[in-house]
Amino acid sequence: MRGLFITGTDTGVGKTVVAAALCAALQAGGERVAAFKPAVTGVDELEPGTVADHDLLARCTGQTPEAVTPHVFGPALSPHLAAALAGSALDPGALIRAGRAAGADADVLIAEGVGGLMVPLAAVPLAVEYLVRDLASDLGLPVVIAARPGLGTINHTLLTVAAARAAGLIVRAIVLTPWPAEPSVMERSNADTIGALTGVEVAFLPRVVRLAPQELAAAGAGLGAARWLGARAG
């Protein structure tokens, strides 16, 4: 498949906004885009006025939320635990098939993980863990990492790059977000240092105040999606 797998250095770093901005920008550029996220947790704990990850991605691609995400859980927990508390377990094979099916009729698949690369999706028993990193590998997609621009991001980002490369994944880019209009000396240094130490392109996504497709597309247009994806087949 032609696509990208969006992961983060941690939970809450903005990877869904990065994924949505890529979806919206590519869609606005004439690509048929599909989004996929293996599971969404925490829907019972959303703040007023916010939308769930799969709802936001669906708005940017024209899919239904159910087509984006096969599993939705109320508590804000790791998906393997959320599933266990719900009396179920995520099946790795079914997740792979769902991801491939989501992208079957699209030019581009934008897959988004849950938390970071080392988050378990299935861990029953714990000796046979299936991580977010394994799903990215099984889908055969290069990785884009969403990371914070501030203090601590160098360590978190380098660890994420190392985890990806240890599994044979290609890291296409690192997106620092939300990138301020006037970055500090530290933030600029963080970007330069991460780029130098990883050899990976560092891109910047500003804060998107209104998470609507048009605004996300405008913000995502400044990323290197077309370059990271390469040319269309044929």
Give a short synopsis of this structure.
The chain has helices at residues 15-28, 53-61, 65-68, 79-85, 92-103, 132-139, 153-166, 185-198, 213-220, 225-229, and strands at residues 3-8, 33-36, 108-112, 120-122, 130-131, 143-147, 171-179, 201-206. By secondary structure, it is an alpha/beta fold.
Structure write-up:
This protein is an alpha/beta fold and 234 residues long. It has a single domain, classed as P-loop containing nucleotide triphosphate hydrolases (Rossmann fold). It contains ten helices and eight strands. The strands form two sheets. Strands 2-3-1-6-7-8 form a six-stranded parallel sheet, with helices on both faces. The chain is globular.
**In angstroms, what is the radius of gyration?**
17 Å
Sequence of secondary-structure elements: EHEHHHHEEEHEHEHEHH
CATH architecture: 3-Layer(aba) Sandwich
Number of domains: 1
Main β-sheet description? 6 strands, parallel
Q: What is the highest CATH level, the class?
A: Alpha Beta
Tell me the CATH topology: Rossmann fold
Topology (SSEs and partners):
Blueprint: E1 3-8, H1 15-28, E2 33-36, H2 53-61, H3 65-68, H4 79-85, H5 92-103, E3 108-112, E4 120-122, E5 130-131, H6 132-139, E6 143-147, H7 153-166, E7 171-179, H8 185-198, E8 201-206, H9 213-220, H10 225-229
Parallel strand pairs: 1-3, 1-6, 2-3, 6-7, 7-8
Antiparallel strand pairs: 4-5
